Amino acid sequence: MKLDIKGLAILALVAGVLAFFLLMPNQGLKSIPANLSVATLEGASLPLDSLKGKPYLLTFWSTSCPGCVKEIPALQALHQQHQNDGFRIIGVAMSYDEMPAIQAMRTQKGMEYTIAYDQTGALAQQFDVRVTPTSFLIAPDGKIAMQRLGEWDHAELEKKILELLKG
User: Fold this and answer.
1) Are strands 88-93 and 114-117 parallel, antiparallel or unpaired?
2) Which domains does the chain have, with CATH numbers?
3) DSSP of 95-129, one letter per residue?
4) Do 46 and 118 contact (CB within 8 A), yes or no?
5) Distance in angstroms (rounded) separating the CA atoms of residues 81 and 94
6) Can you tell me where the transmembrane regions are (predicted)?
């Protein structure tokens, strides 16, 4: 059987669609790993299980990641807009970052949301984070409502946050 250019294009399109659905994360169904805590910059331990009941965004970032730094103002705006509704943002700095750089970035960018430091890399490993930014929007029931590799479409993210807050 001989395929022409049109046939090859259709075959490539079908293969791409299949790959998208086969490789797409199972959003909304998978629960976050149990019994995990993040260590905040203030030295407190924040068990993720304690956040059940309200949605939150867990975003893995790095001071050396241009996309992560670009996203900070939008995340700060979401924090200010929805913190009184019970929504939280937890920015998890990667293990290859250093504490002075994380603290400097927090001060420079006015990051008021919770910042944690995954010093050992164990949390990133639990979530299979390989690049930054990688973010997980967690529903009130503790299941992953959305997962994003790279920067968010912030209108889409805010729409989903509002849906989760309304329950």
Assistant:
1) parallel
2) 27-165 (3.40.30.10)
3) TTS-HHHHHHHHHHHT--SEEEE-TTSHHHHHTT-
4) no
5) 26
6) none
CB-based contact 124:60 (threshold 8 Å): yes
Q: How far apart are the first and last CA of the chain?
A: 54
Long-range contacts from 79-82, C-beta under 8 angstroms, 24+ separation: 79/112, 79/113, 80/112, 81/158, 82/161, 82/165
Condensed to tens digits (0 to 9), the pLDDT of residues 84-130 reads 999 999 999 999 999 999 999 999 999 999 999 999 999 999 999 99
Query: For residue 82, which amino acid is it?
Result: H
Q: How confident is the model at residue 24, as a pLDDT?
A: 43
Question: Which alpha helices (DSSP H) does the chain contain, by range?
Answer: 5-23, 66-82, 99-109, 122-126, 154-166
Give residue for tokens 């729409």.
159
